[in-house]
Amino acid sequence: MKKGMKKSLITLLLFIALLIVWNQTEAKVSGPQTIHLRLMETTDLHGNMIGFDYEDRKKTVEFGLSRTASLIKQARNESQNSLLFDNGDILEGNGLDEYAYRSHPLDMANIHPVFKAMNTLLYDAATVGNHEFNYGIDFMEASLSGANFPYVNANIYVEDRNQLDEDDLNYFNPYTILEKEVTDTSGQKHKLNVGVIGFITPIVAEWNKEYFRGNLKVKNIKETAEHFIPIMKSKGADIIVALAHTGLQSDKGLDEKKGNSVHALSKVKGIDAILFGHSHSVFPVKDELQKLPGIDLKTGTINGTAAVQAGYWGNHLGLIDLKIIYQDGEWKVKSSLSSIRPVYRTLNKKSREVIPADPLMEQIMKKDHNDALDYLKNKK
């Protein structure tokens, strides 16, 4: 090798070595790779797709997904990475839902009205609530088929009339793992595997016993979570989000209260965030019912696990902002902050809108809304 070429090669190798050292030093100075991920929740919508009170036959600013939709779009614009979930109770509860059950044929070309609205918002996943069963299993299945997003539930099983757990079959897919492309704080893109699992209060089997008896059974929430969370981790879930249609505390009518509340679920190792509903409350908020041990209302954690509950009928949007870092070869939730955003506020004893309704959703719902009004007017 000629002397000049040898010298150039040595210089190049030294440059590469210095570049590697500089990159390593830069990485140490700048810290671990960091992702900010926003989780958004709606829950207990009960058919309220627009701001209209079907009981009193008048418009309202106090609820309706068309207003929550505006909050969702606003919250998405604020965050580089976000996911949207619903926590169930959508198929029963108001005049629109009743019309959909009594007079609205469901098929591939004519889906349930609530999903005409919800599909426009690009939900990532959802779980079922107890009111999904009020009109029967067949109607529920036909309705949910109109959703453009997956439904998950881990603790409803097919009733097989034996005492063996080993051969039990889940009625729904117990969980899903979403492959989410995210951007870190330095602008680099990554694939984040977000595991999503669903749960429901076992009292659904009592409240809808005419449909559950002989067909379905419901298992303990905490025990079910302890079974599935390790499986989800083994399948590649980087973080795990639980959608829990149950309250902070267990339903009063439950025979088995232990393990069937969000407070109990929050103690399961491996769950990074819990989005919950059912009790029509909000979390985090200063409330006598929320003075349980392990609750931090400032950050919105329960026993160290991020949590949020978004009220009912679309009157709030629930948010959990996660800071996720790459450490020791895996993604870990470093910190979190939970919050709720209302669609209205009360001033001088009057309800004032916080944000206008989304015009696209109102337009999409116009025909079904008018058909529902006609149905209610003419029903005997």
From TrEMBL:
Pfam family membership, one: Metallophos
One cellular component (GO) term of this entry: outer membrane-bounded periplasmic space
Lineage, broadest ranks: Bacteria, Bacillati, Bacillota, Bacilli, Bacillales
InterPro entries named among the record's database cross-references: 5'-Nucleotdase_CS, 5_nucleotidase/apyrase, Calcineurin-like_PHP, CpdB_N, Metallo-depent_PP-like
Localization (cell): Cell envelope
Family indicated by similarity: Belongs to the 5'-nucleotidase family.
Catalytic activity: a ribonucleoside 3'-phosphate + H2O = a ribonucleoside + phosphate; a nucleoside 2',3'-cyclic phosphate + H2O = a nucleoside 3'-phosphate + H(+)
Positions of the Calcineurin-like phosphoesterase domain: 38-281
Keyword Hydrolase: yes
Record's keyword terms, sorted: Hydrolase, Multifunctional enzyme, Nucleotide-binding
Cofactor(s) it depends on: a divalent metal cation
GO biological process: nucleotide catabolic process
Plastid as UniProt keyword: no
Protein name: Calcineurin-like phosphoesterase domain-containing protein
Top-level taxonomic group: Bacteria
